[in-house]
Amino acid sequence: MKIEIATVLENKLIASNIWKMKMTAPGIAEQYKGAGQFIQILVQSSWDNPLRRPMSIAAVDDDQIVIIYKVFGRMTQILTEQEAGQELDILGPLGNTFKWGDNEYTPVLVGGGVGLAPILNMYGECTSAGQDAVLVIGARTGAEHFIDHEPQNNVFLATDDGTVGIAGTVIPAIAISLKNTGKPEILACGPEPMLKAVQEFAAAHEIPAQLSVESYMGCGIGICQGCVVERVNGNVSEHSYHEKYSLVCIDGPVYQSAEVIIG
Amino acid sequence: MADLRIKIGSVDFNNPIFVASGTYGYGTEVSELADIKDLGAIVTKSITRYPREGNPPPRIVETPSGMLNSIGLANIGVEAYIKEMIPLYEELATPIIMNIAGSTMAEYCEILELVESVSSNIIGYEINISCPNVKAGGMEFGVDCDLTEQLTAQLRNCTERLLIMKLSPNVTDITSIGVAAEQGGADALSAINTLVGMSIDTESQKSNIHYGYGGLSGPAIKPIGLACVHKVYQAVNIPLIGIGGIISGRDVLEYVLAGAVAVQVGTANYRDPGIGNSIIIELDTLLDKNNMISIPDLVGIVQLGS
Q: Do residue A239 and residue B23 have CB atoms under 8 angstroms apart?
């Protein structure tokens, strides 16, 4: 991990409220291990907002890093104002990665909202490795989608309002996508309600699953101890450390679905 | 080059920039991101008698120019600390100040005695009598003069090493607590710990911190830290270590002028673990520019009036 001054190459709106930023960060790109990892961006230099913001990596290409982010607050709004040529102070690469590569399973990649980036990254990894994969992306409405609904190519879109793809949450879309999938393993990232639904679905259908969880984050490097997630069967004996609560920034953000309690 | 060296009790430090408890782990974790050898000292996160999981999430939230935390003293406990961390300090050039938290007087003493019973290059202890986030965090000591004096005296009997009592701003009169710690035999005082605060999500109508309240830190609390240091400085004769919202060399100088001989950088480490290194350089440049030769000459010389 390192702190690096990245140069923005491109920052553009790709769907309603969803932006894609490409930047040069050779040091971090060199240390990058795979989909699931994230960076901590110092969005602005003022101390009005002292903390960095965690952003999942959507792709790494040579010395370039791509993020895809949804605008939902003042900091992400400020991020949209970054122009090509401007510099951005980033820390990374942080966290662990999705684990895959076992040919026995077909990755079913499920993303929604702020959790699109690592899922698209994972899809890219599968594609370039010649691994068949299923992609399921959820959104509230069709305007938030920036890829096409192509069930024939195993790309399934879902919208809450039914304007594009399969109507409803990602769950019915996952169910449909599984019809032609051999032995699936779900890899998911998205808002908490989505992850919880995916977790329940995977458990009910006895499908192995990995979840990349979201957490409010302070430092991103294990120092502040702020970003914990509760472990299932965590040792809650009177005296323990790091058994009941796991640090999302260094133990995660990717966990086996059965390992953590969502929400 | 200004002379940044300072002395607290009988201990010499290369410079007055320390990093605050809870913002630098056990001391060695961030060596990839900072030149930790150049820091004046590292204060470890609070160590308790037994391991602690800490509080349920959410534990932190950003607030205007600051943040709230309610970590709940998550730590490995003193026995693992002795086994796993103390040996690492042999390789470290930076002075380590171990921070200790307890729930009873006996517990504080037991922790200190356990550490004193092994060989270590820990340079001193900072005693957390002011954690606002857990019942076991010693807060009952930090708000009571008699208990502060008794605890300090008992710990004084257990160690020859530097003994620093960390004061809470969540009291009616921080000065009287500082005086009590001095009477108990403390070598120095550090001030301030975090202030109790709250933040609410208006959409969900939920507190942004699991247990409702958290400790406020960051630039937002700097004026409070300065006032506390200035008040205590006038009442005690032992050195003060200023804490609260330090992000620059100028902030350090403010604390020194208010009465601190050293400072601890806290929340800013979460943004940049190497910020202590930058602050050392800034302070040096600032002193040179103003023809200020050494820190001790500047301590507490702030002028009041017009």
A: no
